[in-house]
Each structure stands twice: as structure tokens, then as C-alpha cells.
Amino acid sequence: MSILVILLPPRRRIVARPTERSDASAAGGQEYGYVLSNDGAQVSRHGRARASQLPRADAVLVVLADADVGWHRVNLPKAPAAKLRAALGSLLEDQLLEDDDAVHLALAPSAQAGQPTWVAAVHKAWLAEQLQIIEQGGLSVERVLPVSWPGDAPQGHFFEPVDAAGDVARMMLSHADQNGLSLLRLEGSLSRAVLAPMSAQPTRWTAEPAVAAPAERWLGSSVQVLTEAERALQATRSLWNLRQFDLAPRHRGTQALRDAWRRWLGPAWRPARVGLATLLVLQLLGLNAGAWQQKRALAEGRAAQEQLLRSTFPQVRAVL
Questions:
Q1: Is the pLDDT at 320 greater than 80, yes or no?
Q2: Rounded to an integer, what distance in angstroms lies between the CA atom of residue 70 and that of residue 73?
Q3: Quick check: 55 and 68 in contact, CB under 8 A?
Q4: Consecutive H or E run containing 132
Q5: pTM of the predicted model as reported, rounded to 2 decimal places
Q6: Has residue 79 got a pLDDT over 60?
Q7: CA 313 to each of CA 45, 78, 293, 304, 306: distance values in angstroms, whole numbers, following the listed order
Q8: Which residues are CB-neighbours of 128 under 8 A, at least 6 positions away?
Q9: 114: alpha, beta or left? (left if phi > 0; alpha if psi -120 to 50)
Q10: Element (H, E) at 81
Q11: Helices (H), the chain
Q12: Range with the lowest mean pLDDT among 16-30, 168-182, 194-208?
């Protein structure tokens, strides 16, 4: 099953002329980084293209940058599904930097009522606009994913962030563990002081190729080289999906059928497909054999009737 991963550019925080930018985005002039994988495990192709020119695939996923997702740890309230979003907004009111209506919230995959869970927070209007542009280009986005998230084994990734204007910033570190996710600029001693208690536990360190050498010097140990495309494809193996509540796909029935069809075409169901195809072939052969036997029995019956008629009435010359 082929997968197309679309990397959203970081959200622009300060815009001098926001109206013009919105018009340009709506016109489809914005380019997106993308990663195409034919098997979901290896990068087949990557590059940049407008929404209407992005390659097609069986599944389309969107990955957000670390800086565009905020993380909050809360006890999930016991509320009906229709009122859960409002309950989360009230619970996080003092922690959010913007009004509740301007923030999109999403729960962790394993969230259970009454239990602690992670909640992802994203700028709602910006994400909705990006999804609209992509879907106007002819693609149906199934899932929206964070590129990294808290809660798993400690991981640190060194990278050179590219801001919304296309400028490359200095090297940064994204560190995620069970306590949350931190973005650190590796300048001065503050970053080392913040990272010291985090690095006390075993951590998987990765870095983009351009910053691998300086990252090793700063860290004092080796790191695994991981490209932006590989990291984005790695994020697709998680169970996260930020398309919840107001941004959930409205064509859920069609999407469910499409997901079921893709699972059926996946390698896990190959034995079942082979068995079903074999059964259909055997059924077809059985039907043909039965039809041949019926045809032969009818011909023999017809011949016996004709022979009986001729023996009873020898003067008959033709039998119609």
C-alpha cells in the first residue's frame, strides 16, 4: 500500500499582510514538502510541489512540525462524546495561550475516561485552512500526525528548522519523553541545564545529515543520521490522529470502507485473498463440470427418446 506524507510548513506567527497570504494559499500557490512510500517502510521519492501537483497514493497523511503542536497532560473527564470537546476546553482554559475557540484539541490514541492522558493543541484556523487547500487539490487527508510526541521512550532529534518564510534557523533539539516534549535552541548554557535531567535516562539520539557532526560535538556522543523524509515516514507508524472533533472527516462511512478495502489488499490478508480466489476458481470449475454433465444427460435422454420412437414406428424417417 502506497503512502503519501505531506509535511506542513511551520505556521507563520507574525504576518505583516495576512490577507494577501490567505489569498495566495487559497489560490494553491503554496508548496508542500512530501514523502512518497510504495510500501510504507522505505522512502521511494520526496520533494516539493503544490497541492494540485502532489503525487497520488493509497493513503494521504499530514505531518505537523514540532513547533506547531502543544502538549498538555490532563485527567480525561468523564463526559459524553458530544460534550467532550467543551469539557476539555474548560479543563485547559488556564493553560492555553489563545481563546478556546481558536484552538483545536486532540486526544491520545489510548485515552480513557478518568485516566491521565496527553492532549495535543494546534491552531485551529491555520490547520483547517491547510487541510482545505490540500483537499481542494484532489487529495483526501486521512490522518494528521505530530512528527514526535510525548509518552514513549525518550528520543532526541537535532535539526535545522525552516521557518514559514523559508529561512533556515540555527540547530535545534526536539526532546520527547514521558514528561512531555521540549524544543531547545542549542545556544548558551540554558539548553544544557534544561537537558541535564532529561538525558539521565537512556535516550535515542538522531540528527539530520546537515547537523549530525555539530550535534555529536555538542552532545559528546554519536547520533543516528535520520533525514527529514525518514522521520516523517517514521511518524506514520504511530496511532496518533489529530483529525478529531470539529476537524474529523465528515465522510466517515466512505472512509471506513476505503480503510477496510486497503486492509484487505494489505499483506496480512494475502492468505485470505489466495484462499478466496482458489475457492472461486473451484466453484467455477464445479459449475462448468455440472453444466457439462447436465448437457450430456439431456443429449443422452434425447437420443434414447428418438431411438424408442424409431423402434416403435419404423416408418418414421425424420424426428423433429
A1: no
A2: 10
A3: no
A4: helix 124-136
A5: 0.73
A6: yes
A7: 84, 93, 30, 14, 10
A8: 104, 247
A9: left
A10: helix 81-91
A11: 18-26, 81-91, 124-136, 190-195, 212-219, 228-235, 252-265, 270-312
A12: 16-30
Question: CA-to-CA distance for 55 and 3, rounded, in angstroms?
Answer: 10
Paired residues of 185 in beta bridges:
172
Alpha carbons 139 and 56: distance in angstroms, whole number = 8
Q: Please state, in angstroms and rounded to a whole number, the distance separating the CA atoms of residues 19 and 29.
A: 14
Instruction: Give, in order, the Cα–Cα distances in Å from 232 to each of 7, 133, 177, 268.
Output: 8, 20, 18, 24
Residue with cell 522521520: 231
H runs (alpha helix) in 210-269: 212-219, 228-235, 252-265
Closest CA to 155 of 177, 173, 171, 172: 177
Give the model's pLDDT for residue 103: 94
pLDDT at 197 over 90: no
**Residue 274: CB partners within 8 Å, gap ≥ 6?**
none
Q: Is the pLDDT of residue 24 over 50?
A: no
Which pairs with CB-CB distance under 8 Å and at least 24 residues apart come from 267-271? none
DSSP SS3 for 213: helix
How many other CB atoms are found less than 10 A from the CB of residue 47? 14
Q: Tell me the three state secondary structure of residue 84.
A: helix
Tally of residues, the chain: 320
Find cell 506514520 and name the residue: 236
CA atoms of 124 and 238, how far apart (whole Å): 22
Helix 18-26 crosses helix 124-136 at what angle (to 10 degrees)?
30
Angstrom CA distances, 261 to 7, 156, 251, 258, 298, stand at 26, 37, 15, 5, 44
Locate 56 and state its grid cell.
497520488
- Cβ-based neighbours of 214, under 8 Å, separated by 6 or more: 158, 171
**Closest residue by Cα to residue 139 from 63, 66, 50:** 50
Q: Which three cell numbers stand for residue 249?
A: 472527516
pLDDT at 25 over 70: no
Which of 197, 225, 229 has its CA nearest to residue 6? 229
